């Protein structure tokens, strides 16, 4: 698949822009702060209906405007060799629900997500290694939704249940156990949290299991064999069942149902039972503190280099390479699916694309300026054969010769094709 057209109205710094693209390499070149990243952000938004830079949509609407519109035309090859075009439109409004259209017909975002698959690497991705767990959770959830779009509804419903249950716990904590607060509904929320949380955990485990070998290969190529990178999953559920403190950074990555590298992911029904048991154990602490202490909203990915965690031990260059490896591995997973021998649950989670053209659009935002000459050439060689690649750079010299292709100059949110 590839993006053949992008139209923006009052999105970020753009009042109006209409661009046409072809398959292959497209370089967006211009000084920092001129609007290059806004373009790849818009393409990524059409793919996931979220921004990689901000948690809410309000900053995406141009200052002084009440709404923004992102419209993209996607071309996909069919089994018979023909091509099919899809037009996706998202209208973002400050303080109101967004509106999504597919080929002109109103649709729900959860029904359109995944129509365009994309992988975007940006400087913000360094936080995947050095930052807090919420960024890593979002990374694996976004990837899971692209693998299996129906999971968008599961993740959204789980977040709603966590908020409702947390509100009840906060009320109970405020009354310090006085009978004025009725906790009879807490068991109902526990059951719902366990049911949905089990599906979230199993989906994440499956994605991580499928991603892990690709991460190892990508890091080896990017770093020229200077270490072995792995990705695993750490569960607050495992900690609660073991009687440990789920907030400690020293929890082992290998524990209970979250065991990275296990032969198979724990089925959802078994995880649900474990969650109910763990919730029963931590309820006194939850009532005292007014927070949900168990569930995938408190889990984390574990990134390692050799035998050491990447966070806190990896150098800046190593951290950058690990973050890049995560995105390149995501691209390979979306393109090729789980490798032979991957866990059964990971294989079952995978939903094959409806056509032969499921390769995602790859976007590299200001990547090459951070790499030395050798790593630039290695990365260029890894991505040169992709169906469509967008590269942003401050100057033309930051784009490797191997990635020569169409070029657009971007200055003050004005875009002009020059090659």
TrEMBL record:
<dbReference type="InterPro" id="IPR003395">
    <property type="entry name" value="RecF/RecN/SMC_N"/>
</dbReference>
<keyword id="KW-0963">Cytoplasm</keyword>
<keyword id="KW-0742">SOS response</keyword>
<keyword id="KW-0238">DNA-binding</keyword>
<dbReference type="GO" id="GO:0006260">
    <property type="term" value="P:DNA replication"/>
</dbReference>
<dbReference type="GO" id="GO:0000731">
    <property type="term" value="P:DNA synthesis involved in DNA repair"/>
</dbReference>
<feature type="binding site">
    <location>
        <begin position="30"/>
        <end position="37"/>
    </location>
    <ligand>
        <name>ATP</name>
    </ligand>
</feature>
<keyword id="KW-0227">DNA damage</keyword>
<dbReference type="InterPro" id="IPR018078">
    <property type="entry name" value="DNA-binding_RecF_CS"/>
</dbReference>
<dbReference type="GO" id="GO:0005737">
    <property type="term" value="C:cytoplasm"/>
</dbReference>
<feature type="domain" description="RecF/RecN/SMC N-terminal">
    <location>
        <begin position="2"/>
        <end position="393"/>
    </location>
</feature>
<dbReference type="Pfam" id="PF02463">
    <property type="entry name" value="SMC_N"/>
</dbReference>
<dbReference type="InterPro" id="IPR001238">
    <property type="entry name" value="DNA-binding_RecF"/>
</dbReference>
<dbReference type="GO" id="GO:0003697">
    <property type="term" value="F:single-stranded DNA binding"/>
</dbReference>
<dbReference type="InterPro" id="IPR027417">
    <property type="entry name" value="P-loop_NTPase"/>
</dbReference>
<dbReference type="InterPro" id="IPR042174">
    <property type="entry name" value="RecF_2"/>
</dbReference>
<keyword id="KW-0547">Nucleotide-binding</keyword>
<keyword id="KW-0067">ATP-binding</keyword>
<protein>
    <recommendedName>
        <fullName>DNA replication and repair protein RecF</fullName>
    </recommendedName>
</protein>
<dbReference type="GO" id="GO:0006302">
    <property type="term" value="P:double-strand break repair"/>
</dbReference>
<dbReference type="GO" id="GO:0005524">
    <property type="term" value="F:ATP binding"/>
</dbReference>
<dbReference type="GO" id="GO:0009432">
    <property type="term" value="P:SOS response"/>
</dbReference>
<comment type="function">
    <text>The RecF protein is involved in DNA metabolism; it is required for DNA replication and normal SOS inducibility. RecF binds preferentially to single-stranded, linear DNA. It also seems to bind ATP.</text>
</comment>
<keyword id="KW-0235">DNA replication</keyword>
<keyword id="KW-0234">DNA repair</keyword>
<comment type="similarity">
    <text>Belongs to the RecF family.</text>
</comment>
